[in-house]
Design brief:
By secondary structure, the protein is an all-alpha fold. The chain has helices at residues 7-11, 17-40, 53-64, 66-81, 101-119, 126-152, 154-161, 166-190, and strands spanning 42-43, 50-51. A hairpin with a 6-residue loop joins strand 1 (42-43) and strand 2. The chain is globular and about 50 Å long.
Length: 191
């Protein structure tokens, strides 16, 4: 018996064999497209533009679960590495070694951990969603600011790569907390 703990599983029942693989590929491609599009919605800031990527990554993790969210973020990073313009500033391997690369790898870490929390049904309530997206946001900042600090020092990294974005990320967290339990409620009624 397959448990359907993710929104993706509830809306599109997992299958075995070729159809299951095609379903996973389709979801990964949709997920990478959503993250890439969210990168284009940005407020210009330096050194990291404020985008909707963090919200997209966290919602994908909560909607897909750990394994599919991890696959989606790995595919996203690979797309960017080969030059597809999926990152906020474009594409290419240089983005994965730049001073802001820690945020990109933070997306992957957050997707895995938040996906694990989603697999444990944390995303079905507002409080659980708040905790999960809070943990995910902290992971993104930890890796992002940590890597930036290697290049500019910790004080500068906090000043440039954390403080300007806290208010925006609090809004993104609030959006996730408001919509995800409602989406679950709607999905339960539909299925």
């Amino acid at each position: 018996m397959t448990t359907q703990s993710s929104i993706a599983d509830k809306l599109w029942t997992p299958q075995q064999g070729t159809m299951g693989l095609l379903r996973q590929i389709a979801l990964v491609l949709v997920g990478t497209a959503v993250i890439a599009l969210s990168a284009r919605i940005q407020v210009p800031m330096w050194p990291v533009p404020m985008t909707l990527q963090t919200l997209a990554v966290l919602l994908i993790a909560l909607s897909f679960g750990a394994r599919l969210a991890a696959a989606t973020l790995v595919a996203y990073l690979l797309q960017g590495a080969v030059g597809m313009p999926v990152f906020a500033g474009g594409g290419g391997i240089a983005f994965l070694i730049s001073p802001t690369a820690g945020y990109l790898f933070g997306f992957l870490a957050a997707a895995v951990i938040v996906g694990i929390l989603a697999d444990r049904d944390w995303h079905r309530s507002a409080l659980g969603t708040l905790a999960a997206v809070g943990v995910g946001t902290i992971l993104i900042y930890t890796l992002g600011v940590g890597w930036l600090a290697v290049h500019v020092g910790l004080t500068q990294a906090i000043s440039l790569g954390l403080i300007p974005f806290v208010a925006g990320d609090l809004v993104k967290i609030a959006i996730a907390v408001m919509i995800l339990p409602q989406v679950w409620s709607l999905v339960e009624k539909v299925r």
